[in-house]
Task: structure prediction
Amino acid sequence: MPEVSFQTRSCARCTLCCRLPDIDELDKPANVNCVHCVEGFGCRTYEKRPQTCRQFQCDWLTDPALDDAWNPLDCYMIVYRQGAQRTVLVDPSLGKAWQQGHYASMLKDLARQSEAEGGYLILFAGDEVRRIRPI
Ligand code: SF4
Ligand code: SF4
Result:
């Protein structure tokens, strides 16, 4: 895809945060599409979406320190912050690829960045929950 500058980042066709997280207000489990989601388009109930959805923006949208490799449409992962914890949700369609090569390097770099800020990085991939270390 064309390079996207930070200033022009937008969700575009991405609807990954309507699938990967569990959302209590919607009684939605993790890794299934919200009933209101039109994949590749957006939210059917946008004006009435719950507070959790209104408040959520992934770090790729808000943090210029994340480069374009972290575009959720390209990397099949979402990054967001919860206080000191930085969370990565991995799309199950990525399988175990996040443990190898370029993905593993990206995650270690992100863990390094998180720990340099006094935080830590937790990854959720299917049933697996793991703290990612920078080494
Ligand atoms: S994961 Fe990020 S880019 Fe994708 S729809 Fe959600 S907020 Fe937008
Ligand atoms: S209510 Fe809308 S914004 Fe919220 S998860 Fe469902 S489709 Fe996404």
In short: Strands lie at 37-38, 42-43, 77-82, 85-90, 120-125, 128-132. Helices lie at 51-55, 59-62, 72-75, 101-116. Residues 6-132 form one domain.
